[in-house]
Design a protein that fits this description.
Length: 239
């Protein structure tokens, strides 16, 4: 079984790769520019005795995606599971945001899921089986001040999931989304101690989530047989 994960060099993507490698899935993965992170992930993945194809790829670029999928499937065969995980954020007022920043977030967080799905689905259709899991955010459910573009991209990913799930269900391809809350990742390393304490006071479980906890949920969903079209929140009761 082969799984393709975007944004595999660190954080949630890396944790997902290790969870599936531990369960003997071959790992296909990419990141835009973090070569050292990719190398580290590849070394950890191969320590589980599985095959891998882990390379650089700009997932906002259609031609790079086509090339990446062509080369990875030539090496490992088809793709059974797709995890659209890669994402970026922008914190600031909407009126201070330029169109380039807006497009970059939408292209990376939403358009990439469209492109990856478009070119992976044919492999799933051949088998009449597959799973697509999108990694969204609680901000896609409720929105966040100062993160309008990020919230919009994740909200779009949620409805993309629901629509695509209906489209692919007759072919036994399941599509779901996981919406993490505050997870201990590089994206959240810039918070001051006081800011973190304030956030943790709002979370009933009183702490950040672990990337391994998100990865465990992804694995459970990917191995389910009747779950599709769902937005599943993992946030310690925050929202």
């Amino acid at each position: 079984m082969n799984i393709l994960i975007t944004g595999i060099s660190r954080g949630i993507g890396k944790a997902i790769a290790l969870e599936f490698a531990k369960n003997k899935y071959n790992i296909i993965g990419c990141a835009k520019s973090d070569f050292n992170g990719l190398s580290d992930t590849k070394n950890l993945v191969t320590s589980y005795g599985v095959d891998s194809y882990i390379e650089l790829c700009d997932i906002s670029n259609e031609e790079e995606i086509k090339k990446f999928i062509y080369e990875s499937t030539n090496k490992l065969g088809g793709i059974d599971i797709l995890i659209n995980n890669a994402g970026i954020s922008y914190i600031g007022l909407l009126q201070d945001m330029g169109i380039l920043e807006w497009n970059n977030i939408i292209n990376t967080n939403l358009t990439s899921a469209f492109l990856m799905s478009k070119y992976v689905i044919p492999y799933m259709l051949k088998k009449q089986n597959g799973h697509i899991i999108n990694i969204s955010s609680v901000w896609g459910n409720i929105g966040a001040s100062m993160e309008v573009a990020y919230s919009a991209s994740k909200g779009g990913l949620n409805t993309f999931t629901k629509a695509l799930a209906k489209e692919l269900a007759p072919s036994n391809i399941l599509v779901n989304t996981i919406s993490p809350g505050f997870i201990d990742t590089e994206m959240n390393k810039n918070f001051e101690k006081e800011e973190l304490e304030a956030i943790f006071e709002e979370i009933p479980l009183g702490r950040a989530g672990k990337t391994s906890e998100v990865a465990d949920l992804v694995y459970k969903i990917a191995t389910s047989k009747y779950l599709t079209g769902q937005i599943i929140t993992i946030d310690g009761g925050w929202t």
